[in-house]
């Protein structure tokens, strides 16, 4: 890849959202802004190899997009008054914008864009599609592929979202301070949903899905930069980073899921872990100063307990089980209850875990989920009740849809089906392994965002 | 007597522009006692607000998912129900959709106060709130939402509480015959119990107003922008 190609790729990744956001502010037209951003990047692809990469790629692209907006409006025969308004806005706005990292950087446009994309008056699937298209710059076809929808259906979803924003007058602005925490909840939910979508399916070789993880991490970083004082924003960033750090170790060469307990901790991404721990520490400091602790921060603490354990055996399960209890208090969810039961089983023994599991397993929202029989089977296996464990794995295999998880469960079934039932007294001493069947181990994936149809 | 009639049209109805044009009806209805009426923006621009345990829950879409959604409404001052039904039957949408006729239920037992819901040129920045309540659930509040009206003085353009849905008439015209059905328009959990019009600079402001209305706690409030040509 040449230096210019590299600059183009980087500019697209870093500047797409900013170019779209600024153009929406100037023109008030979402579809137009996307077309103009497209034009700007096409122009860069044409001219940068010839003229060299501009000193300020972001400013160059924004200017090109504004020019394209005026051209397109003129060609569309826009009435003179409206054209003059846009031209005036463009002129006022044409003062070269600061580059990223510049302390003068005013990132408000992008926060307005993200907050509008994730407005609660939009359906969740529309929020996700709009965020991926307008903030992250994924194409309509890519978004469709990620969510198993046709390009036409995805395009319709985006049109519906843009039309609601226009017709119902969803404001394009940074939410006022009194509304910001509530709006951030929606933003973080979309960020985390994107991450989970990529993470739970990343066992396959689907690079596009892995890109969702990258986009989620990038969005989480951006929101943390735009809203530095919110503990939950830091918590969300810490959570996605600490989970994403395990990505390389989560699958083996065959693409099979490797449970947390068996992962090669040397393959965890030390830089991502460090950044995640720093984000968590920043969030904890904000809570100490009176900020609101929420489910993301608590889940990040769980992920951090795994990230900092020198080995699976040395994991502080008591701390993790306590964090799950806190999580259940903050955000009751059967998924967190399930993961908490597994942690309890690790901290206090399989019988305690099974008792905790029984307390949540009947929740209707877990009906049909393979996680319940799989978690039960793991606990039974640790209790030395191989025959019952085998039944559990069989039940789970009947429900699981992800191929890598299916192979994992089949392997466990082969293990326990091969073993004779042993008396509990003769079973191995305290289990030295982590919760196997919950991908990633912390159980955080899925605890907020239930798996969505794809 | 004052009636609010809702124009309900299903997604499959495909009237020509000419068939759907209510201009001639409006002209006739205005002489027969129509006080005002507005077309609403498409149903997928609706947002529903509920308040539960002090938390404001905002969701996309109308509060009840049924086929024929409210596409517009009219306020009629006519001598009796028969006159309202007759006028409804003349509405072009009665031929490809349905007109739900609901009598206004004044809060203090007196006649409706006569104030207009929205100015003639309503459009951008005007939202209709549809109050949805569970008919057999929480008791219908007999008190008018005075606190709400006070807070929203200036933005609240007035509204009407409606008599229970069981007293509704739904008017359809099929093959030239007028068919009047008694009872609620559709068997859904939350029925329209009232309407209010507000002026608001944007959806957030409209959602704020909706969340403070007592109906948001008892049931749901649907926020629909008016149609803008």
Automatic annotation (TrEMBL), chain A:
Residues 183-281 form the DUF6596 domain. The keyword Transcription regulation applies. GO terms for biological process: DNA-templated transcription initiation. Residues 18-77 form the RNA polymerase sigma-70 region domain. One of its GO terms (molecular function) is sigma factor activity. Residues 445-454 have a biased composition (Low complexity). It comes from the Bacteria. Residues 420-454 are annotated as: Disordered. This is RNA polymerase subunit sigma-24. The gene is rpoE.
UniProtKB/TrEMBL annotation, chain B:
InterPro entries: Dimeric_a/b-barrel, YCII. Residues 1-107, 171-227 form the YCII-related domain. Belongs to the YciI family. This is YCII-related domain-containing protein. It comes from Cellulomonas pakistanensis.
């Amino acid at each position: 890849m040449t230096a210019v190609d590299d600059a183009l790729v980087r500019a697209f990744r870093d500047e797409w959202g900013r170019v779209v956001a600024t153009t929406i502010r100037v023109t008030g037209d979402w579809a137009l802004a996307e077309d103009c951003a497209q034009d700007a990047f096409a122009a860069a692809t044409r001219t940068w190899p010839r003229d060299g990469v501009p000193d300020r790629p972001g400013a160059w692209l924004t200017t090109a997009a504004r020019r394209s907006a005026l051209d397109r409006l003129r060609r569309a025969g826009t009435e003179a008054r409206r054209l003059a308004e846009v031209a005036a806005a463009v002129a006022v706005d044409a003062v070269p914008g600061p580059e990223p990292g510049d302390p003068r950087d005013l990132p408000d446009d992008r926060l307005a864009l993200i907050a509008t994309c994730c407005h609660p008056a939009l359906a969740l699937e529309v929020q996700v599609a709009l965020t991926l298209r307008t903030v992250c710059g994924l194409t309509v076809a890519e978004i469709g592929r990620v969510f198993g929808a046709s390009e036409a259906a995805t395009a319709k979803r985006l049109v519906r979202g843009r039309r609601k924003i226009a017709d119902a007058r969803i404001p394009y602005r940074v939410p006022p301070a009194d509304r910001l925490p509530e709006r951030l909840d929606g933003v973080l939910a979309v960020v985390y949903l994107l991450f989970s979508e990529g993470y739970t399916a990343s066992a396959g070789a689907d690079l596009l899905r892995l890109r969702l993880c990258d986009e989620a991490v990038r969005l989480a970083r951006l929101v943390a930069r735009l809203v530095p004082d919110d503990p939950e924003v830091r918590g969300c960033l810490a959570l996605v980073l600490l989970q994403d750090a395990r990505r390389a170790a989560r699958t083996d060469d065959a693409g099979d899921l490797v449970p947390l307990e068996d992962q090669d901790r040397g393959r965890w991404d030390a830089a991502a872990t460090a950044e995640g721990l720093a984000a968590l520490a920043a969030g904890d400091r904000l809570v100490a100063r009176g900020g609101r602790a929420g489910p993301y921060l608590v889940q990040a603490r769980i992920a951090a307990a795994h990230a900092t354990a020198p080995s699976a055996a040395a994991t502080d399960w008591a701390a993790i089980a306590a964090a799950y209890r806190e999580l259940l208090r903050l955000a009751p969810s059967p998924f967190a209850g399930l993961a908490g039961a597994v942690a309890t089983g690790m901290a206090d023994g399989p019988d305690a875990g099974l008792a905790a599991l029984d307390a949540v397993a009947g929740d209707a929202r877990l009906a049909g989920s393979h996680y319940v029989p799989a978690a039960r089977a793991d606990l039974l296996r640790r209790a030395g009740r191989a025959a019952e464990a085998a039944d559990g794995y069989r039940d789970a295999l009947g429900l699981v849809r992800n191929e890598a998880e299916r192979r994992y469960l089949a392997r466990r079934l082969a293990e326990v089906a091969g073993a004779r039932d042993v008396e509990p007294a003769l079973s191995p001493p305290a289990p030295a392994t982590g919760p196997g069947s919950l991908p990633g181990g912390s159980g955080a994936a899925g605890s907020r965002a239930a798996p969505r149809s794809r | 007597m004052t009636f609010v009639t809702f124009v309900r049209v299903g997604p499959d109805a495909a009237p020509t522009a000419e068939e759907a044009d209510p201009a001639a009806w409006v002209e006739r209805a205005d002489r027969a006692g129509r006080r005002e009426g507005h077309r609403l923006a498409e149903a997928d621009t609706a947002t529903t607000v509920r308040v539960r345990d002090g938390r404001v829950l905002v969701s996309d879409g109308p509060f009840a998912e049924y086929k024929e959604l409210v596409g517009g409404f009219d306020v009629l001052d006519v001598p009796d129900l028969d006159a309202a039904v007759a006028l409804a039957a003349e509405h072009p949408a009665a031929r490809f959709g349905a007109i739900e006729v609901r009598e206004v239920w004044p809060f203090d037992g007196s006649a409706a106060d006569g104030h207009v819901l929205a100015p003639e040129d309503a459009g951008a920045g005007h939202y209709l709130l549809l109050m949805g309540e569970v008919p057999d659930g929480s008791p219908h509040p007999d008190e008018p939402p005075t606190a709400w009206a006070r807070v929203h003085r200036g933005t609240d353009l007035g509204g009407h509480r409606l008599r229970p849905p069981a007293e509704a008439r739904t008017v359809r015209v099929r093959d030239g015959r007028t068919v009047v059905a008694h009872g609620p328009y559709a068997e859904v959990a939350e029925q329209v119990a009232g309407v209010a019009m507000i002026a608001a600079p944007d959806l957030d402001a409209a959602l704020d107003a909706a969340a403070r209305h007592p109906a948001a706690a008892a049931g749901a409030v649907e926020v629909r922008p008016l149609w803008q040509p």
